[in-house]
C-alpha cells in the first residue's frame, strides 16, 4: 500500500559536515559554533512529532565506528517496495558506502529472495542513490531521475531491467549550471499532486515530464528555484494512523511556499512541518532524505 504508513530513521552518532559529499552537493554548508550538536535534538523532535501525528517510526541507532557523518540519510543506500522487494544501491562517495548495514537489511527485508543488490555497480563507477536519485510514482510504476554524478544512465537502465519500473531520466541544473545532486530535491510525488521545479529543467526535458504528468492526471504544483533552494521539493507523503495522507516537509520549506501552493496541498494532505535547520544547513538534505519508507 502506498503511501507507506511506516518509516525507518537512523539516529546519528557522528553527524557533521561531510567534505567528501560536499563536492557534489551545493546545499551543504560548513558548520560553525558546534551547530552539528543540534542535529540530535532536531532528530528526536522530528521522531516525536511524526509519532504524535500517527506515523509509525522505526528508529535505529547509528554505530559509532566507523564514523558516518551522513548516516542520518538512510534512504540513499536502500529502499523497500510495495511488492516486497528490497534494493541496495551503489553510492558515489566512499564514506557513505559504509552506511550499509546487514543487520538493518535483515530487519527491513522480509524475503531474501526479493533482495536486489545493485551495490556491485560501484566497482564499475556506476551510481544510483536510492530514493534520493529516484522519485517514484507508485500508482503508475514510474521512477523519475535527474542525471548527476550520483545518478547515471547506465545504472538507471539496470534498475529498470531488475525492477520493471519505467525510468524517466531528465536533467536539472542549479544556478551555477551544475547538476542538482538528487531528484528528491527537485520534485516530490503524492497520490494527488506532483510538486516540481520546472525552472531548473531544460525545455526538452520539461516537455517529456509534462507529457508523463498529464497521463497521471495529478495536479502539478510548480515551485520556483528559490523555493527549491529552501527544500520545498524535498517532501514525503505518508499514511497516518487514520489512513489519511500526511505530507511531511520542513519549516524551511513550509515558510517558502505561498498561500496558493499550500492551499493546493492542504486539499489532499495533512501538513506536518518539522524544524531541522542545522541538519539542512550542514547535511544539505531535508526531511525526505531522513526517512526510508518501509512497505
Question: Key features?
Answer:
295 residues, alpha/beta, L-arginine/glycine Amidinotransferase, Chain A, 3-stranded mixed β-sheet, 11 helices, 15 strands, 28% helix, globular
Walk me through the structure:
The protein is α/β, with parallel strands linked by helices and 295 residues long. It has a single domain, classed as L-arginine/glycine Amidinotransferase, Chain A. Helix content is 28%, strand content 21%. The protein is built from eleven helices and 15 strands. The strands form five sheets. A three-stranded mixed beta sheet has the order 2-1-15, covered by helices on one side. A three-stranded mixed beta sheet has the order 3-4-5, with no helix packed on it. The chain has a three-stranded mixed beta sheet with strand order 6-7-8, sandwiched between helices. A hairpin with a 4-residue loop joins β6 (135-137) and β7. The radius of gyration is 17 Å and the shape is globular. It starts with 5 loop residues before the first strand and ends with a strand. The model has no long low-confidence stretch (mean pLDDT 96).
Itemize the secondary structure elements and their pairings.
Elements lengths: L5 E6 L26 H15 L3 E6 L16 E3 L5 E3 L5 H4 L4 H7 L6 E3 L12 H4 L1 E3 L4 E5 L6 H11 L2 E5 L12 H4 E3 L3 E4 L6 H14 L2 E4 L2 H4 L7 E4 L5 E6 H6 L2 H8 L3 E5 L2 H7 L8 E2 L2
Parallel strand pairs: 1-2, 4-5, 7-8, 10-11, 13-14
Antiparallel strand pairs: 1-15, 3-4, 6-7, 9-10, 12-13
